[in-house]
Structures are given as C-alpha cells and as structure tokens.
Amino acid sequence: MRTPLTELGRQLEAPDARLREQASRALAELDDGDASVLLRAALQDEDARVRVWASRGLARKARADDAGPLRCALVDEDPEVRLWAAIGLARAGDRGAAAQLVVALEEGPTEVRTHASQALHSFPDGGPWEGHLVRLFETGTPLAQTWAAAVLAGRGSAGALAFWRRALRNPGTRVDAALAAPLLRSPLAARDLVTLAARLPQGELRAAVCGAGSLAELLTAPLLALGFEALLEDLEDEPELRRDLYLVLGRAPGMHRPVREAVLGVLRNLAPAEVGRELAEVLGTLPAREAAGVLGMIATVLPDSVVAAVHALPPARRDALFAALHEHELQAFPGVAALLGELLRTRRDSHDAGAIPHGGSASRPGAHTNDAARSERVAGRLLAPELATRGDARSPAAEEVLARARVLGLLVARGLLEERIAPRDGPDMDARGEVRQLLAQLAHPAVERALLPTERDMLELSPGSWDVQDRAEASACAEALAVLLWALGGVEHGASAPPMEARALLERLDAVDPSAVRLRGAGVLLEVHAQCEAWSLRVEQEALEREARAGRTLEPLRTPVLRDALAAVSEESARSGRSPLVAEDLAEALRLAGLGTVERLVSEGRAVALVDGDLAFGGVAIAALDDAVLARARDVLHARVAALHWLTYGGQWPLGAA
After folding, report:
1. What percent of the chain has pLDDT over 90?
2. Which is nearest to 158 in space by CA: 131, 182, 137?
3. HSE on the CB side for 110, CA within 13 Å?
4. Which tens digits make up the pLDDT trace of 327-366?
5. Per-residue confidence (pLDDT) for residue 429, from 0 to 100
6. pLDDT at 368 over 60
7. Cα separation of 481 and 503, whole Å?
8. DSSP of 545-574, one letter per residue?
C-alpha cells in the first residue's frame, strides 16, 4: 500500500520540474519526521524552486540530524536556499550560522532580506551575529543599512531608528523601509508611515510594489503591529494626526482594510462638525482637482462630516471644488451625487411658501455674510440633472424640458424684477406683489419637481436683495431657457445667434401650449450641439491668443472640448517643468488641435457658413469682436453648451459647467 511519503518520493523523481516542486513543497509542510530524508535528497535537485522548498522544510523542522545537508546548502547558488539553510542551522543551535543571515541582508533580493531580518529579530540578544549586523549598519549599501537599521531599532537603538526614518523618506529605500517596518514595534514608526502616506501623491500611493498590492497598502499594513491603536486612542487630542488620516483616507483607496476600519471607527465617534471643519482646512491646502478626489473618497465613509466640511469652505473654494468634483465624474465616487443632493436641500426647520423675507440683504437667511447659499446654487446648477432624474441616464421628455424651462423662466423674470428695482432706495409693495405672483407658479406639481431648493431660496429672497452674482446666474438661466425653448420648437435659436432679449423669451415661454410640445429629435440636438461646441472652441481660441499677445496669465479653462484639446501640451509642459501653463502654450495647442476641429466641422457642413473666413457670433466674425463682446460670447456659448449637453446626453451636465 502506497503511503503519502511514498507517493511524494516518486513525484520527486518526475521529469517535470513543476511536479517535483509540488512534492518538495508538500514535504516541507508535513510534520512527519521521516519527510526529512526526502527533503535532504531534494536539496540536490537541479531546479532551484525544488531546493528552496527543501531547505524551508528542513529549516522548519530544525533537526540536528539535518545540520550536515543544511551546512552544504549554505554555498548554494540560490540566495533563498542559502537563507533557509542558515535559518535552519541557527534554529538547531548553530549560533555562528546567524551571521549568514546578516550577509543575506546585503546580498539577497527583497524577499530574502525580509525573511532574514525576521529571523534575526527573533533571536535572543547577545549573539555573535550582532557585531556583523552593526558593521553592516555602519558600512553596508543603503538597502542593507535600511534592513540592519530596522532590526537594531527593534532592539532599542535610537540611532538605528533615526536612520530607518530617513530611509523611509528616501524614494530609493522607501519600499524596503516599509517592508522592514514591522520589526520596529514602535508607535513612532507607525506615525512616520501615516505621515508619509499623507504626503505622497496619489499616483505613487496607487503604484504596485513587490508584487503584493499598492504602496498605500504596504505603508499601512504594518500599523496595527506597531502600536497604532494606542495612537488612535488619543486621536481626539491629536489634530495633526487627524489631518494626516483625512488625507490618507482620501488619497489611498488601497489602504489596508483592518487599519481603515480602525480609523473610521474612531473618526465616526467624533463630532461631524469638528471633523468637517478640520477636513475643510485640509481641502483648502490642496489643488481643486486633488481636493475633489479626497472629498469624493471620504464622502463614501464620512458623509455627515463631508457635508460639514463643504459648508465650512470659503465660497470661492467651494465653487472650485464642486466644479472639480463634476470634472472627476461623480459616478467615480459612489454616493457622492446623492450626498451633494442632500447638501443642496434646504435645512430650514420650517418652510412657508407664501412668506417673503422682509428687508434688504441683511435680512436674507445666511445672506452675504454667509455665502453658503450662493455656492450651493453653483453646485445646484452642476447637479440639477442628477437630482432631477435621480441618476436616471435617460434623456428628458418634452414635458420635463417644459417644466425645467418654466423654472428657468421664473428665475429670468425675477432677474428682470431685480434690475428694475435696483436703482431705487428700497423695494416697493408692487415689487413684493410681483414676487408673490412668481412664487404662486411653484404650486404646479411639474414645476415643483423641476425646482431645486436653492432656486426656491433665490426666488424667496426679499425684493432688491439680489447681488451681482445672483443677477449673473439669472442671465445664464436666460441662455439655457433659450436653448430649451428652441428644443421645444418655441424659438428659432441657432448656435451662433446673439443672446435673445429676456422679455421676448418669457413671452415665447408663455405662448407654449403644453398639450402640443414636441421635443426636437435626437439627431437635430446632436447636430446643434456639435455646432455650438465649434463656436465655443473658436471663441476660447481667440480669447487665448489675445491673452498670449498681451502676455497675461490665464483664468481656469471652462470648456471640456478645450481641455481635451490641451491634454497633450499640458502633459508636455508638466514634463518640462513649466508650471503653470503660459498663454503661448495654450494658444499653440489650439492652433494644432482646436482650429483643426472647427475647420473639420465646417468642411463636413456641421456649422453654418463663415463670415470673412471665420466663424461668427451675432453675424460678426469672431476675430473682429471687441474684447467685451468676446467675453460675453464666452459666457453665452458656455451656457448654451451646458444646456445642449443636458438635452442630448441623457440629463448629464457637461464636465466643468457652472
């Protein structure tokens, strides 16, 4: 009858090296002492992997009878075989063999260094190998010094700990220092790992290392073994550590899961308002795009704190963050769209649709002393389609477009009212009556569904309290309304047409018969969308070239098409160390990519005829527009592209629209 040992012995003689390796591995894991005889034979195999498992098996058993074959294996050509031979001899009582492990710290590959350092760390103090280790720490290569420092620091050497901390910050030795971190058993080492993970760029944290996960996981996996839980116990008194943990949570999706759960367990017990305030401070130190990524990641695990953080941000920073979040594509962050939807909803304890706030801007709820409402309106315009459709990707129906048009019409009408009463000393009763008439239209269920809470807030403000930003938003609403009316067949609205007069738009809106609305076909919408993007791109090109000629720096780019066209030159500029991009870079990119796109659209008949060889706005060639009209064209076309995008792409707002 064949026994398992008999079968494995036969398999060790197979011509296939993979079968012999399997047998050697199985023998190494057996507790049967008779397996050693076969493992000694396997130490003579021509395949290195067979010999590795044989040496590991003999080292695991650490029998005095195996000392001879293991001593011969100390000169094997494979460093991993030599490693396990030394470990086996040291475990069997050969104190001198441990010196071979010190040699492995200098000569072996990463896996060998890891096992050698762990073995050295497990030996009692006072061994003859310690002198070899100290000499290696003082004179070895940087990688060997890093591993030696970790072993010595784990035994209490302050100088070795300082060296390891420097090695962790050095890109050339960082991975080895992180791999050696569990040897230190020090909360100081845990703090260093967290600090580094908070400071490194996200791309580096996500990079695969050592064939076992990302650098983020490598840096965070040792934390619990280093006394990190003791640091978490005092987290409420450690604001700097909390700030670093916010960054690690946001930058490192590959964070070691048990560590992540431990951190979240503590943070969720802290006051969301306090966490939000600190998170806002952290976000304020990051570029908008990176801040958006951090916020998007944290929103999935600390939603209440993220809401508090957004409210705590300065208005301009909040606006930039909302735009960057949308540029990141909200679907990349599960739950973020819904979370920001909650943020946009009114937080008033009670709501009386018939009540009109009295007085000027000072009486406005959260008025201009608290700009949260304004930034939420910016976010509302970014997120309106997502909120209106609850994530549904279908294109809006004609009835939904009409309802949204009526909401925009109310905002446009309120803007006209504000323009009329602005020169006066204060609002009169007629103005209050007209505001009440506007609010009465909100009673229609379809309009109510299409209305954002922040838009209701705008409509309910006391007459005369709108500021310049409010009126600018109403102007953008007029452009969007013109596009929606065109889509419903209510106006003839070409992509290059000049802005329509607001009162004329409202008259057209009043004349729409709800029972007869017909949304233009998807093909027509796509056609006009392509035309409008062509004009938008040409206007951006003209503006950038004028900036270049004047030698000025540029405002943030607002057009998705333009950003795509500039991707290549942006990467090249980053590689060459030129940051930020200068106007000449962007203008050149447009000449190479943008203008070619416009010319192609024109040649395909997807744009109307040129004027003086150029695209035209309001019948005037774009190159001939004065600066003021050119700036107005940018705003108009940007608003139209946004509205067309919503109509043509399933209720999704274009990236960066605001």
Report:
1. 5
2. 137
3. 12
4. 555 555 555 555 554 454 422 222 232 222 222 333 333 3
5. 58
6. no
7. 12
8. HHHHHHT---PPP--HHHHHHTHHHHHHHH
Determine whether 85 is exposed, middle or buried from the number of CB atoms within 10 Å of its CB (0-12, 13-18, 19+).
Answer: buried
Other beta carbons within 10 Å of 423? 6
Going by the DSSP 8-state scheme, the letter that residue 621 receives in this structure is E
Q: Which helix (H) or strand (E) holds 341?
A: helix 336-344
Cis status of the peptide bond prior to 580, with omega within 30 of 0: yes
Contact (Cβ atoms closer than 8 angstroms) between residue 263 and residue 224:
no
Q: Is the dihedral of CA 133, 134, 140, 142 positive or negative?
A: positive
DSSP assignment of 268-333: TTS-HHHHHHHHHHHHTTS-HHHHHHHHHHHHTT-HHHHHHHHHHS-HHHHHHHHHHHHHH-GGGS
Contact criterion met (CB below 8 Å) for 9 and 38: yes
Has residue 508 got a pLDDT over 60?
Answer: yes
Comparing 201-205, 566-570, 638-642, the range with the smallest average pLDDT is: 566-570
* CA dihedral sign of residues 266, 269, 274, 277: positive
**Where residue 496 falls among pLDDT bands split at 50, 70, 90?**
low
Structure tokens at 43: 């130490």
- Residue 139's CB is within 10 A of a number of other CB atoms, namely 10
The residue length of the chain stands at: 658
Residue 99: half-sphere exposure toward Cβ, Cα within 13 Å? 8
Contact 153/161 with Cβ under 8 angstroms?
A: yes
Asked if the model's pLDDT at residue 163 lies above 90, the reply is: yes
The three-class DSSP label of residue 393 is coil
Mean pLDDT, rounded, for 468-477: 82
Cross-strand partners of 614: 611
Q: Which of 387, 540, 369 is nearest to 450 (CA)?
A: 387
Q: If you average pLDDT over every residue of the chain, what do you get?
A: 75
Q: Is residue 93 packed enough to be buried (19+ CB in 10 Å), middle (13-18) or exposed (0-12)?
A: exposed
Helix residue ranges per DSSP H, 488-517: 502-511
pTM: 0.53
| Most confident among 34-48, 208-222, 370-384 (mean pLDDT) | 34-48
Query: Of 177, 190, 345, which is closest to residue 262 (Cα–Cα)?
Result: 190
- pLDDT of 579-610, one tens digit each? 444 444 444 444 444 455 555 555 665 555 57
What letter represents residue 229's amino acid? E
Look up residue 575 and give its two tokens: 């590689």
Could you write out the DSSP letters of every residue in 559-617?
-HHHHHHTHHHHHHHHHTT--SPPHHHHHHHIIIIIHHHHHHHHHTT-SPPPBTTB-EE
Check residue 166 and give its pLDDT.
Answer: 92
> What is the predicted pLDDT for the residue at 168?
92
453 contact partners, CB below 8 Å, separation of at least 6: 344, 345, 346, 380
